[in-house]
Design brief:
Helix content is about 5%, strand content about 55%. It is mainly beta. The N and C termini lie far apart (about 45 Å). The chain is built from 1 helix and 28 strands. β12 and β13 form a beta hairpin. Strands 1-28-27-26 form a 4-stranded antiparallel sheet, with no helix packed on it. A 4-stranded antiparallel sheet has the order 2-3-4-5, with no helix packed on it.
Length: about 325
């Protein structure tokens, strides 16, 4: 037998169990070389195939056409944009700015300013309440404000500490709010306008990102010190699971169809977990990214995850697009 025949036989021989495909496949990188500084949160327009990125350090919002695979517009004149929210029915883009504590309402096509709502300071995360079309925004030393479609402030709920990520129930009145300076998760009744509970995060602190699995009554809280992902029972706030995660985590998403969690962090990775049941989770992948790439957004409708990558030395800022395997 020749050495060539032996090599062919070895190459065709089974090598054991096939390796499972990665849950995320890097599809493309869309570079934005003129964007400088830190990048914060993003929002989607799935029907229009657009993504909006809050480029906090650049004082801009970057607009991407995902089908074309390119940035199509830069919205300037913003003061440290942190949170963005697209309202498809009204065709409005809302931008929460930390620099001047305002929420700007922009036309969703021309991006011309329509309204500016001044809250006080450090306007941050934005969430839409689909039940009544109100927008909730976290701001200042500790408050959630509700804004109606006309820009009027309808509620202002004190929290006692600056709110980071928060999630709204769809089948109930509660809002779950990360309060990292208090080392708590606040529970707000948005009908009553009051805080009804404060849940401890235990030994894990600096709780910034959050996701909700309402069907299983589970809340996922990402902590930075130490790097842990907590799973809380939303009936009583009990911690039912604690998992190691990526450092400097800033976004977490629950993929209901695939029963997965995706956590992105500035340490330079996306960590993926499989949900076996409400109380059991297994890490299935740790995908290397870039140091400082903290924020992301997941679109179930598009089957994609998008990662904001800040500039690093000779490498320009970019939007990385991941295809989600099923």
């Amino acid at each position: 037998m020749t050495s060539q025949m032996l090599a062919l036989m070895l190459a065709s021989a089974p090598s054991g169990q096939a390796q499972a495909p990665s849950p995320l496949r890097l599809e493309r990188k869309i570079e934005i070389p003129d964007v400088k500084g830190r990048i914060d949160h993003m929002t989607m327009d799935p029907r229009g195939g657009r993504l909006f990125m809050a480029a906090l350090g650049n004082d801009t919002v970057e607009v991407f056409d995902l089908k074309a695979g390119k940035r199509v517009q830069t919205v300037r004149g913003l003061a440290e944009p942190q949170g963005v929210l697209f309202r498809p029915i009204a065709n409005r883009l809302l931008v929460a700015s930390g620099g001047d504590g305002s929420v700007r309402v922009l036309d969703g096509s021309s991006f011309e300013p329509i309204q500016k709502i001044v809250l006080g300071q450090d306007a941050d995360n934005l969430r839409l309440d689909p039940a009544n079309a109100r927008v909730w925004v976290g701001y200042g030393d500790g408050a959630l404000a509700a804004i109606d479609a006309k820009g009027a402030k309808l509620a202002d709920i004190p929290l006692g500490a600056h709110p980071e990520s928060f999630q709204l129930e769809t089948n109930g009145p509660r809002i779950f709010v990360n309060l990292p300076n208090a080392r708590k998760v606040g529970v707000v009744d948005r009908d009553k306008g009051t805080v009804i509970a404060r849940w401890s995060t235990g030994d894990a602190t600096a709780n910034f990102p959050m996701a909700l699995d309402e069907g299983h009554k589970r809340l996922f809280v990402g902590c930075r010190s130490p790097a842990r992902l907590l799973v809380l029972n939303t009936e009583d706030g009990a911690i039912v699971a604690t998992l190691p995660t990526v450092g400097d985590c800033d976004d977490v998403f629950y993929d209901e169809a695939a029963k997965r969690l995706y956590v992105s962090g500035g340490e330079g990775a996306i960590v993926v977990y499989r949900q076996a049941d409400a109380d059991r989770y297994e890490q299935v992948a740790r995908i290397a990214t870039v140091k400082g790439a903290r924020t992301s957004v997941f679109s179930a409708a598009l089957g994609r995850m998008f990662l904001a990558v800040p500039p690093d030395g000779q490498n320009p800022a970019a939007l990385w697009v991941y295809e989600v395997s099923r």
